[in-house]
Amino acid sequence: MTSPSPHEWFKSSHSGGSGTECVECARGEASFLVRDSKCQHGPVVAVRHHTWDSFIAALRRGALEGG
Questions:
Q1: Greater confidence, 38 or 14?
Q2: Average pLDDT over residues 41-58
Q3: 47-66 mean pLDDT
Q4: Starting at the edge strand that comes first in sequence, how are the strands of the sheet with 23-27 ordered?
Q5: CA quadruple 56, 59, 64, 67: dihedral positive or negative?
Q6: Taking Cα atoms as reference points, which of 12, 14, 38, 41 lies closest to residue 26?
Q7: Whole-angstrom Cα distance, residue 21 to residue 66?
């Protein structure tokens, strides 16, 4: 059995609307953490705070829209 995460996870407001593409995020000590909400005990991606801030700023500018 895995122990519960000490982080406060929240669902991203930019996840897909179908309920099948949700990610959760948490603020870690040295980085932001991202995981699949459907696999909470699975892998976690760690992104350094500066990089996360740049990512969020690009989202707000619309620089990452489309694809």
A1: 38
A2: 93
A3: 88
A4: 10-11, 23-27, 31-36, 44-48
A5: positive
A6: 12
A7: 16
Residue 5 lies inside a defined structural domain of this protein: no
In three-state secondary structure terms, 55 is helix
Question: Nearest to residue 13, comparing CAs of 52, 56, 53, 66?
Answer: 56
Within-domain flag for 9:
no
Residue 44 belongs to domain spanning:
24-61
pTM of the model: 0.69
The mean pLDDT of 3-18, rounded to a whole number, is 68
In angstroms, rounded to a whole number, what is the distance separating the alpha carbons of residues 41 and 4? 9
